[in-house]
Structures are given as structure tokens and as C-alpha cells.
Specification:
The chain is mostly beta strands. Helix content is 7%, strand content 48%.
């Protein structure tokens, strides 16, 4: 897991080479103008654009196996929590089709990210996370790039 300002995203291409593809897409497209839903980016990468009201922090965590999440707050803000997959328990069972598993609780340490417009967080398959939590804003527009691993 790592997070930073979107203006620094390109410097992470050494950590995750697919970041270069995402940066090229961002140079050619305005995230605020993309339609809600899925847009294919290339090289197996796609982005989901969504708008929603952030919610209070339930003890529900998610994780993926096939894709990493690169989550970019386009408008508004939210809190995101991230933890090692080893810290969560009570899994619902992995859905191969949706590349998704929910977990009931985090029994150890976790990091909190106060994500504002123009920031991003990267969650690898080894990172359980719970994004979309209420911070200050009543609505959020977010882009989630799904990067195959």
C-alpha cells in the first residue's frame, strides 16, 4: 500500500510498472469528464468511475487476488483504511468471478488515509482495505484503476 498526491504518481512506475500506462491514460483523459462506469485503459487495465455518499466505518474489509486497486479521489474526500491481509479475519469466501472477498474485522494494525481530491492510494492483493468512509464531504467522485497482477 502506498499513497500520495496524484502529481507524484509517475514516480511510482518503478514500484508498479503499470503505473506508466495509467499515467499515459491520465495525460490523455480528464477523469472528471469520464462517464460513470467502466472504461478500458489497455494492457488489461480498466478504470471504474463512481459517485457516492461515503459511509460510516463498519468493520468490513475487502481484498482482491487478480487485481491491485489504484484509487484516485476526483472530487470530495474520504477516509480509506488499509492493512496487511494477514491482519483481517472472518472472510466471506473469495469470489473468482468478482475478484473480491469481504472480511469481518481487522485484528491488528492498520493505516488510515485521509484522501482528498487529487490524491491516490494503491492497494496490492496483499493489502486488505476499506475505502469510501466518511471524512468531511457528503459526496465523492472516484476513479478506481484495476491493475492485473
Amino acid at each position: 500500500m502506498f499513497c500520495d498526491k496524484l502529481t507524484n504518481l509517475e514516480s511510482y512506475a518503478g514500484v508498479c510498472p503499470a503505473v506508466k500506462t495509467v499515467c499515459e491514460f491520465l495525460k490523455a483523459h480528464d477523469l472528471a469528464s469520464l462517464p460513470i462506469g467502466r472504461t478500458d485503459v489497455g494492457e488489461g487495465i480498466f478504470v471504474n468511475i463512481s459517485e457516492y455518499e461515503p459511509y460510516p466505518a463498519p468493520d468490513k474489509w475487502e481484498a482482491h487476488r487478480k487485481y491491485a486497486d489504484l484509487q484516485i479521489v476526483v472530487a470530495g474526500d474520504e477516509r480509506m483504511d488499509g492493512a496487511s491481509i494477514e491482519m483481517v479475519s472472518g472472510g466471506s469466501g473469495y469470489s473468482e468471478e468478482d475478484d473480491f472477498e469481504l472480511f469481518e474485522c481487522c485484528g491488528g494494525y492498520y493505516a488510515t488515509i485521509w484522501a482528498t481530491a487529487g490524491t491516490f492510494a494503491y492497494f496490492a492483493p496483499c493489502d486488505a482495505h476499506r475505502p469510501g468512509l466518511h471524512y468531511k464531504a457528503d459526496s465523492v467522485k472516484k476513479a478506481v484503476f484495476k491493475i492485473p497482477v
